[in-house]
Every structure is written in structure tokens, then in C-alpha cells.
């Protein structure tokens, strides 16, 4: 007996959803008695490490000698640093820095 295409797609979505839910709850089940020191340490240092890697990746091809002399990059980087120091919110810092950079590149330094 052949499975209909809609049932097949629904089955795939159901399995993917189940795996996602299990993976989300797995750390709470595994670390019921408390997380190991290594996991707590990674939770403290990874946000800063990720931010540092994003900064290096975003600025790797920046030229300080032509065009806008990297002024949009410097402005957005400063905004990310200030926001991160004030709010300690990695996602807010990344989104705001991206928006400021795009505003600079698309509107101010055309």
C-alpha cells in the first residue's frame, strides 16, 4: 500500500518535531542533579567567544584605505560593544549592530 504524499510530509514533520522536542528537554533530564563544572564554564565563556568570532569574521575583509574608510564598520562595532556592556544581551547587540551597519551602508555612506 502506497502512502499518500500529504501523509508522508506530515510524518516527516512529526518525526522532526519529536526529535527537536527530545533534544530540547534532554539537558534537563541528563543534568537533573546540576550541571558539571565544565558545562557551567562553557555557559559563561561561550557568549563572549562567539561575539569575538563574529567580530573577526565580519571585519576580515574591511579596507581602511578606500571608500568609506571602514567608518560604517567602526560605528556598528562601537554600537555592539556599548550595547553589550550596557545590556549584556548578545542577541540584542548582534541585531542592533547589523541594523546600524545596514543603515550606514544603504543610507548614509552611499
Topology of this protein?
Blueprint: H1 5-30, H2 37-59, H3 71-87, H4 90-108
Helix pairs in contact: 3-4
What is the number of helical segments per DSSP (H or I, 4+ residues)? 4
Net shape: flat
Structural class label:
mainly alpha
Strand proportion, as a percent range, falls in: under 5%
Distance between the termini: 61 Å
Radius of gyration: 22 Å
Please report the total strand number as a whole number.
0
- Taking pLDDT < 50 over at least 5 consecutive residues as the criterion, the unreliable ranges are none
Q: Into how many domains do the coordinates divide?
A: 2
Biggest sheet architecture:
none
Proportion of residues in helical segments: over 70%
Order of helices and strands: HHHH
Global mean pLDDT: 90
